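Data's thin. Show one?
=====
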Amino acid sequence: MKGRPRFYVEAEGPNVEALQRGLAWLAEAAARSDTTEGILAMPTKENLWGTVSEAMGDEAAKALEDGRPVSLKGGVAVKLVTHRMSLYPRTPIPVLCVYVTKSHLDKIDRAPRVAEMCVVPWTMDEVRYWIETWQAVCLT
C-alpha cells in the first residue's frame, strides 16, 4: 500500500542487536500510531527460538509461541503472526517483519490497516527489491 512508512534494519543472519533495534522501533511506531498493539511477523513459530528468545527472553518466546501477547517497553502488546496466519488488524497497527520470505513480506505489505512496517532480514538480498520499491528508510 502506498503512503505507508517503511523501514529496515541493515543486518544479516541471526543478529540480536538488529532484532532489539527492530523491537525498539515497534514500540516507537505504536506510540506514533496511537495504539498499544504491535505485530511480530515471522515465518514460523520455530523462528522464536534463537535470536528472538535471546532478545526477549525464553518466557516471552514461549508466550508468543502459545498465542499470548507480550509487553514491550511502553506497554505495547505484541502478538506473533506467522506466514500461515491471517493479518487483519481491526485498527492501524505497526508490524515488525523478522526473517520473512519475499512472499510473506508481500502478503504483509498488501494487508489493510498496517500503519508502518519494519524489516529485520535474514539476508539483505531477500528484501532489497522491497527496500528499492518503497524507498524504505534504514534505521541506524
About this structure: Strands lie at 6-9, 37-42, 70-71, 77-82, 93-98, 114-120, 137-139. The chain has a mean pLDDT of 91. The longest strand covers residues 114-120. The domain at 6-139 is CATH 3.40.50 (Rossmann fold).
